[in-house]
Amino acid sequence: MSSQTRSGSADAATASGSIVLEATDVQVSYGKVTALRGVDLELGEGELVSLIGPNGAGKTTFCDTVNGFLPFGGSVQYRGMEVGSTSRDELVDRGMIYCTEERDLFGFMDVEDNLRLGAYAIDDEDYVDQQLEFVYDLFPRLEERTEQNARSMSGGEQQMLAIGRALMGDPDLLVLDEPTIGLAPVILEDISQAIDPIQEQGVSILLTEQNVTFALDHADRMYLLENGEVVKTGTPEQLRGDDYIRETYLGG
Ligand SMILES: Nc1ncnc2c1ncn2[C@@H]1O[C@H](COP(=O)(O)OP(=O)(O)OP(=O)(O)O)[C@@H](O)[C@H]1O
């Protein structure tokens, strides 16, 4: 999907189809607390890159940073645009869509209205209808609940709605911050099954996770963040074979 509803981008990175997101030496502090230290991360066209790490490692801070919500040191480039000097509206307009850990749903609005709000900036009504159908195919539980208020849904259903709403915004890069947190295994499976079809639509994905198994199952490449620093990177295959990852994050 993507680009169909968005004004054409002429920059080199888009034209060459290579780097979507490039973070270089990113530093973020909250007063005296340093949350990110010298983080480098690269995400290529169509890739799913996962940033894994324990509580407080800095995953949400990284998502907030690349989405232009925090002041930072270093450089973050999205499609060749420097995030620090690009407005949030422009980032969203160019397809950087953020599904936050808090989900940010409109609790007193129903499922379909929440979904349609995700497409507020898109004029192409055919696209919106088509994408709504895609989201309902992806999450049939949402289609069964089109008129149910978001606040009355289970945590898992709300997570599906949050992802669905992000998809309605025609993402080029979808940033998913800990989508599996607190979910029962059966719901986790529903979320898991949605990942491949989203990638098949041509969407690049940055996924943060504490659930290392989930990340290993879906990522093309991974970065392990601890105390604000990237301490390991590699493919899932490489990280599965890593003693430290196995002992610390996969229970030996
Ligand atoms: N608004 C804030 N003010 C002060 N410190 C903050 C703020 N937000 C985050 N921090 C601190 O920055 C560090 C990184 O937090 P962050 O939420 O980015 O980690 P995380 O990996 O997303 O954790 P979790 O998995 O628990 O959500 C933590 O020490 C946290 O207390």
TrEMBL record:
What GO molecular function annotation could you give as one example from this UniProt entry? Answer: branched-chain amino acid transmembrane transporter activity
What SUPFAM superfamilies has UniProt attached to this entry?
A: P-loop containing nucleoside triphosphate hydrolases
Q: Which residues form the ABC transporter domain?
A: 21-252
Q: Which UniProt keywords apply?
A: Amino-acid transport, ATP-binding, Nucleotide-binding, Transport
CDD domains registered for this protein in UniProt: ABC_TM1139_LivF_branched
List the GO biological process terms.
Answer: L-amino acid transport
* Family per record: Belongs to the ABC transporter superfamily.
Q: What is this protein called?
A: ABC transporter ATP-binding protein
